[in-house]
């Protein structure tokens, strides 16, 4: 008699194999592997409640701390164009436990669980043909960090990037002034020096670098704002860290073998937090196929169609030869904006 648990695990194995084979078949059929893809590659779709169950949370409670982390599925609200999504929420506490070995608390995070096996071994995400990690989120303005783990030689290495949002940009200076004890204390200055001995990397600073693609709207109180926004983070700007410390020498993400993607909160500011995530995907920019959903959910804060994706990078070399070595303009992200990097 075959145990029920064994059947369940086999069912997951066959489902994963079928899904991955189906995805690869579509790529082959559409010859997407022969050119830079213009269609998005969904990694975590939280409209599917099953995706939420395939993630796990972390908090300093594991070492005796008092921070909490929850991940809850929230159904769609058609009347407000709110999609089904996941709610990452809880409370951050910097209170230390009665354990002399624990010197620092105040963190919470989540990520997807191990993706398991399929017909050809362990299952990874291959995002090599894509320039950006895209996240559609609704933020409370706190300083979240996006974490990517790959099948690297050092298993505890993580590539990180600050999750910048319009809300974060608008209220950052006010938050800093309200948390002066946190940002200006000698304790945290020493911690920052230890974490970033060569200075804070641009991808982890409080000011979004130019490479980050965000809505151009400068206010969070516009009449057409839904609170939702889509942020594009370039894969090549993520910073390699280990247990929170920047690692030298820096190495690029192994894009062909991505194990997990998650979001953490390590700002050590006491109080509640609440981040909503609709979807996380790999992309080369906002395309025509995505724009209807983008506008429906994000309203006036929707990103515009990327010209490089619209044209599928079909301009002739003669037309763009003079622009080859120019720096990408802020309005030309995605395929067209990254031409100099990929051809140089």
Automatic annotation (TrEMBL):
Residues 45-174, 220-277 form the NADH:ubiquinone oxidoreductase intermediate-associated protein domain. Pfam families: CIA30 (PF08547). Residues 315-344 have a biased composition (Basic and acidic residues). One of its GO terms (molecular function) is unfolded protein binding. GO terms for cellular component: mitochondrion. InterPro entries: Galactose-bd-like_sf, NADH-UbQ_OxRdtase-assoc_prot30, NDUFAF1. One of its GO terms (biological process) is mitochondrial electron transport, NADH to ubiquinone. Its main location: mitochondrion. The keyword Kinase does not apply. It is found in: Mitochondrion. SUPFAM superfamilies: Galactose-binding domain-like. Residues 308-344 are annotated as: Disordered. Keywords: Chaperone, Mitochondrion. Belongs to the CIA30 family. This is NADH:ubiquinone oxidoreductase intermediate-associated protein 30 domain-containing protein.
């Amino acid at each position: 008699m075959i145990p029920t648990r064994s059947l369940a695990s086999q069912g997951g194995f066959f489902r994963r194999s079928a899904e991955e084979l189906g995805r690869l078949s579509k790529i082959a059929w559409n010859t997407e592997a022969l050119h830079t893809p213009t269609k998005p590659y969904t990694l975590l779709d939280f409209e599917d409640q099953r995706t939420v169950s395939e993630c796990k949370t972390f908090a300093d409670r594991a070492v005796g701390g008092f921070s909490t982390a929850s991940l809850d599925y929230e159904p769609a609200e058609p009347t407000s164009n709110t999609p089904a999504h996941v709610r990452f929420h809880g409370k951050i506490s910097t209170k230390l436990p009665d354990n002399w070995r624990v010197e620092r608390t105040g963190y919470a995070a989540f990520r997807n669980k191990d993706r398991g096996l399929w017909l050809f071994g362990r299952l990874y995400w291959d995002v090599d043909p894509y320039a950006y990690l895209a996240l559609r989120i609704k933020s409370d303005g706190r300083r979240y960090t996006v974490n990517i783990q790959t099948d690297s030689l050092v298993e505890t290495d993580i590539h990180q990037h600050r999750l910048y949002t319009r809300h974060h940009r608008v209220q950052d200076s006010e938050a800093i002034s309200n948390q002066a004890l946190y940002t200006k204390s000698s304790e945290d200055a020493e911690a920052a020096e230890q974490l970033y001995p060569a200075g804070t990397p641009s991808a982890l600073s409080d000011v979004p670098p130019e490479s980050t693609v965000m809505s151009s709207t400068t206010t969070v109180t516009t009449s057409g704002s839904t609170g939702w926004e889509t942020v594009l983070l370039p894969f090549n700007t993520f910073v390699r860290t280990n247990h929170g410390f920047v690692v030298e020498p820096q190495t690029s993400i192994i894009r062909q073998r991505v194990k997990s993607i998650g979001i953490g909160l390590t700002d050590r500011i006491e109080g509640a937090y609440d981040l909503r995530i609709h979807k996380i995907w790999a992309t080369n920019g906002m395309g025509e196929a995505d724009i209807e959903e983008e506008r429906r959910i994000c309203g006036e804060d929707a990103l515009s169609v990327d010209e490089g994706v619209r044209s599928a990078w079909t301009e002739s070399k003669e037309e763009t030869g003079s622009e080859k070595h120019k720096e990408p303009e802020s309005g030309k992200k995605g395929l067209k904006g990254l031409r100099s990097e990929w051809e140089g």
